[in-house]
Amino acid sequence: MKNIELNQRRSLATPRGVGVMCDFYADRAENATLWDVEGRAYTDFAAGIAVLNTGHRHPRIMQAIAAQLERFTHTCYQVVPYQSYVSLAERINGLVPIKGLNKTALFTTGAEAVENAIKIARAHTGRAGVIAFSGAFHGRTLLGMALTGKVVPYKVGFGPFPSDIYHAPFPSASHGVTTEQALYALDNLFKSDIDPQRVAAIIVEPVQGEGGFQPAPADFMRGLRAICDKHGIVMIADEVQTGFGRTGKLFAMSHYDVEVDLITMAKSLAGGMPLSAVCGRAAIMDAPLPGGLGGTYAGNPLAVAAAHAVIDTIAEEQLCERAEALGAQLRQHLDGLRKQCPALAEVRGLGSMIAAEFRDPATGAPSADHAKRVQSRALEAGLVLLTCGTHGNVIRFLYPLTVPQAQFDAALAVLTQALAE
Ligand code: PMP
Description:
Elements lengths: L2 H11 L12 E5 L2 E4 L4 E4 L2 H4 L8 H11 L13 H13 L6 E6 L2 H16 L3 E5 L8 H6 L17 E4 L10 H14 L6 E6 L2 E2 L5 E2 L2 H14 L2 E5 L23 E4 L10 E6 H4 L15 H16 L2 H18 L7 E7 L2 E6 L9 H13 L2 E2 L1 E3 L5 E4 L7 H16 L1
Parallel strand pairs: 3-15, 5-6, 5-7, 7-10, 10-11
Antiparallel strand pairs: 1-2, 2-3, 4-12, 8-9, 11-12, 13-14, 14-17, 16-17
Helix pairs in contact: 3-10, 7-8, 12-13
The structure holds 4'-deoxy-4'-aminopyridoxal-5'-phosphate.
4'-deoxy-4'-aminopyridoxal-5'-phosphate (PMP) binds next to helix 5.
């Protein structure tokens, strides 16, 4: 089957709302390489949007899934439970940067984890309000969309949204918002829109993902923690994109000197299988009544088996250290290219969660065109890259942390070309 034929069939069979970036179709994949149906190889630095920190089809993860396939694929945990769910919860409880007694509930998608974290915070506080941030992304469900701080394309035509959701500015040097201004705006929100005593939760990405790989400043996180403590608000870190080694730590919250109350996770948790989780303080996690949390597929046994193998792999192959090393290399490489590419305005990020931001060198205005051009030149040369950012002017790097060094170096050479022209 040819790509061109599949594209024709796709446009007839699927709605345009399911936007598709590439015009070729996956046939098979191995670690950081993906082959299309016509046999062309691509280096995959998109990794299914941050899902494959352990690469495509890691042998250890494949083996774990295959072993589980031989036993059972589904019982619905809430009907007939299984040990692997409990032991995964135990492992996650011990791995998150939250001291004390933790509990974990498993779900299927990132949006579902976010929805459930909000449900848990509401049940615990008996309050309705939720505060999220401009530029945030929290999913495509109705509540996920409501929390997401970007209108086009996520919210257009889909309202009305659940009420009692508020957005405050996210501090970012590249957008000219300081921590003081962001915290002041939050204080203002409490004066003008919602009594802080009615706020159940503040949800924040430690590094905004879709919003442009913007790390939250340490003093901002400290400020949020103080506000949450003062008003009895549950602080939630959405680590769906930052989790499982991407930032050089298992969880990005380990870069900060404050703890949150709940953490949502998904994506690279299960190396390509659909699995998500909410983990946090036991007293908060236990607020919903029995039966209030769950889902038919929540904590699917195949995905749980994969997650166990992912956690083993990250530890054994020292992928957090690898994230630091590869990220430092990429950052240095990009910084070195700034002279020959004046539109490359900023290189930033944590560990291997690195962003290259493009601006018009004459006006300083965000340049989505530039980012798109670099992305399509790289793709022509066989390197799959993703963009992000509220203005779409950021290239983000999400390569498998298991990428062979030679393939990584070759991708850097492609980048040099893509940025030079
Ligand atoms: N939260 C964050 C921070 C995300 O990056 C994403 C996905 N990009 C989601 C939630 C939603 O995850 P999912 O697509 O699995 O529902």
